[in-house]
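request received
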Amino acid sequence: MSAHPRGRDPRPPGAPALRLRDAGLAFGERRLWTGLDLDVAPGEFVAVLGANGAGKTSLLKVVLGQRPLSAGTIEVAGRPVRRGGRDIGYVPQQRGLEATTPLRARDFVRLGLDGHRWGPLLPSRRADAAVDRVLAAVGATSYADAPVGRLSGGEQQRLRVAQGIVGDPALLLCDEPLLSLDLHHAQAVSRLVDRCRHDSGAAVLFVTHDINPVLPYVDRVLYLAAGRFRIGPPAEVMTSTTLSELYGSPVEVVESGGRLLVVGGAAPSPHPHEEVSS
Amino acid sequence: MTTGIGWNDVFDFRDYGALLDLVHNSLYAGALLGLVGGLVGVFVVARDLPFAVHGISELSFAGAAAALLLGVNVVLGSLVGSVLAAVLFGVLGVRAKEHNSAIGVLMPFGLGLGVLFLALYQGRSANKFGLLTGQIVAVDDPQLLSLAIIATVVVAALAVVWRPLLFASLDPELAAARGVPVRVLSPVFMLVLGLAVAMSVQIVGALLVLALLVTPAAAAVRVSASPFLVPVLSVAFAVTAVVGGTLLALGSSIPISPYVTTVSFTTYLVCRLVGRVRRPAARPATAVPDAVAPRR
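response:
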């Protein structure tokens, strides 16, 4: 495998970054969602919102190939998903790394490129070039050689974005990457993800419990609740009417100071939304 | 000669050349051990498994003691004991947190069994003690050969799994998302660890295996964050500790282990000091205003 997956195995042109057809997911009797049709175009920013337990994380696991669909089909960049597929970049939640982690920032980012490959880890000029490029893209060049375990949470999260895009993916999966970041860093990382999708043409599937930091960039929202879902631009989905319908109980969307607050929607899963963030 | 304990019991370098001839096998064994211990240690530290190393070494000791009692090959005995322990720990839990109580339960049982076997053993008492505290001139040609074979297997296995194992050790969730077979690598590493421990028990004894499988790597990560340099330093520290410790132990009637552990510990102290000087706790601020992000 090379540092540039596209050169090795060209993606089918014109294929959506992500395509779900009549997709359903169930755990035994409990159905999380069914009949999900979704095409995410290259470069599109889709936020995935919804109650806890509505299946946001499970959706990510399906896209990552870690869990099969109960029904329907899923394709990433025109190909069926498989575990560890190179078409996907992944940005997880911020988790602190041990101070003595034997990696510099650049090595940490490089794991996103070829960390899965067998054999010893050796210096590689080609990997260095790719890593330098994304380090510059996320504004992390100044601490490229610093021990990654000694960087701040915000710096580490920038590196995780770099790690996600270094393999030049068709789809960037973000799993609550703003969790445990303060508002300033949450906004900075959101801006970064937005710029990266413009630069690389990768689509973004952004799972979050709070839409506000990414609201300026979101093209469409996939809102999962109570075994149902709604897809559309934020202005259509994030309304009291739509969400009340979705939850089957009164929900109010309040706009306050440019921020959207979702109030109510308690049934059937308790406390679906963390309305107020940081 | 003096009565009681004198300096000459700790260091006595008369006839050193003649002694050196007697122990060249031990020096080769020590170098192999340093190589294996230094490399495996990188992952022991990254995966937070020092306690597992200790647990495996006690069961390895029980295996070796059983072999001594039964009159079969001691290397084989310690190998069986440690691989059995490694597999058990691997089955009982993937993460360090799940491991620890299982290890805490099995370790004293293994130690107890080992003591029982030694008590029943009627042979030379030096053999008994050697299993716990290490022995120096005891490495014969067949034993060296078996150590070399184990070392080859360990190094070859590590060479194959190195990169994904490092990824899986440092960031398991992300590694899994990238398609690294995290659940397969974990028992594979435990097996490699079992082999490395079985080797170490032969030389430094069951009680002090940690000095070879943990201390050198723990020292290395204090002075470097480069994934290329850390294994090199770790191996260098481990080889220095075993070979250096062996050379020092030659001139004494004391077992090898205190020398090895002292060299190893000294390296660690120096590395901590160097790390403290080179890398003050508070990193100077970078161009990016990142200050208050919480850390877990």
